[in-house]
Amino acid sequence: MLFKQGRFSGFITPLSYILDLLVINLCVNFLPINFQNPWLFHFYISFTWVVLSFKNDFYVIQRYSKAVVLFRKLFTQFVFFFLILYAFIGFFKQPLMSRLALGQYFVLVFIGISFLKILNFFLLHKYRERVKGNLRNVVVIGRSKKANQLIEVFKERREFGFNFMEQFGPKDADFELLKCFQFIANNNVDEIYCSVSELKNEELTAFINFADNNLKTLKFLPDNKNIFSKKLKFEYYDYLPILSLRDIPLHNSLNAIFKRSFDIVFSLFVIFVILIWLGPLLALLISLESKGPVFFIQKRTGFDNNEFQCFKFRSMAVNDLSDDKQAGKNDMRVTKIGRFIRKTSIDELPQFYNVLFGNMSVVGPRPHMLKHTDEYANRVDKYMLRHFVKPGITGLAQVRGYRGEIEKDSDIQNRIKFDIFYVENWSFFLDLKIIVETVVNAFKGEEKAY
C-alpha cells in the first residue's frame, strides 16, 4: 500500500523514476549529438521513457522477484527505448544529428540505469536481510507440505522481507478462528497466508471477511479446490505459487503517483480560480447570518483507517450534535445560506485544501464521521475496504444517488457496494466521469442534498 505506515516501499518507485529521468537527460550533455532543438529532445525522451515504463511495468519489482525478472525488464525496456531513440531523427527531421554519438548516448544511459536498478535491487535485499527493515509481518494458516515450504521460504529468504510470526493448524484440536483473528489483530500482522486444502468453505469465507474488514492482505496456497469465481492473481515465492484474491489498482505506485499529481493540479486550480474570490464572499454571508466560525472542521476516517481534520464551510448554526447526527430533511440546524451551499455542494469546496495537504483525493469514497465508521464497521460487511484508498470530495456512490443522510440499511449497503467497486476498478477515466457527473448534479440539484 502506497506510503502505508511503517513502510517506505511507496517511495522507491518515485525515487527510481526521478533518478532514471535525471540519467537520461544529463547524459545528453556529455556527447556531441548536434541537436537542432535540445528542449524537444529532452521532452521526447522523458515522455517516451515514462510511457514505456508504464507499458512494460518497468518499475514493478516485488520483494520476492528474482534477479532474472529484473534483467528481463531491463532488456525489454531498452530494446524499445533504442528504437524510439533513433526514431527521433526521422520523426523530427534531424539530418545533422550524429548517429554514432546517439549510439554512445544509448550505451551510457543503459549502463547508468542498469547500474542504479541492480544496485537498488541488491541493496534492498541486504537491508531487509541484515538490518531487518521494511518488513511485513505474516502468519500462515495450515500445516500442509506447501504451508511448511512457505514458512521455510520466509525464514531462509530473509532478503524478501517477511517476518514470520505464527503458524495455525486448522486441524489442531485447539484451533479456533476467534483466537487466530485476535492474534492477527493484536500483533500488527500485515499478511495472512491460508492453505486452501485444510480450510472449510465457511472458514475461508470467515478469513476473507476478516481480512476485508480489518485491512489485512490475504493470500492463498492453491490446490485443486475451487476457491471463488473472481479473478485471482498468481505470484511466485521462490518457485512456490501463491494466489492473491484482490488487486487494488491504486496500490500500484505509478497509478497512485498519477492520481496524486492530478489531485494537486486540480485542487490548485479550484483554490486559485474559485475559492480565492468565493471564499471571502461566503465567509461574509455566513458570519452575517449566524455567530460562529466560517469553517466547520470535523474529525473523519481516512486512508488506512487514519483520522484527519475535514474542512467544510459552516452550513449550520453552532450546535452540540454535529459529530453525532447527520443533517436531515428540513433540519432546523441548517441556516439559510447553509441550505443553499449544501444544495449546490459549495460547502465541500474547502476540502480541496484537504486534497492539497494529502488527506483526501478529488474522487474516492466519502469520508465518514468517526462515530459512523465504528457503527458501520460492525454492521456492514466489507465496510473497511473503502479505507484502502484516500477518501474523496466526490465519489461513485454519490453520483449514483447515495449521498447525504442514511435513512435505512440499504442506503449504506448500496453506498459501500459502489465504494468497493471504485476501489477495485479505479481508472483515471472513471475519475473524470465522476467529476463531470458531480458538476452536472450540482447544477441540477439532488434530492438528498440537504
TrEMBL record:
GO terms for molecular function: phosphotransferase activity, for other substituted phosphate groups. Keywords: Membrane, Transferase, Transmembrane, Transmembrane helix. It is found in: Membrane. The chain crosses the membrane at residues 12-33, 39-54, 74-92, 104-124, 264-288. GO terms for cellular component: membrane. It comes from the Bacteria. Pfam families: Bac_transf (PF02397), CoA_binding_3 (PF13727). The keyword Membrane applies. It is a multi-pass membrane protein. Residues 259-443 form the Bacterial sugar transferase domain. Its main location: membrane. Belongs to the bacterial sugar transferase family. This is Putative colanic acid biosysnthesis UDP-glucose lipid carrier transferase.
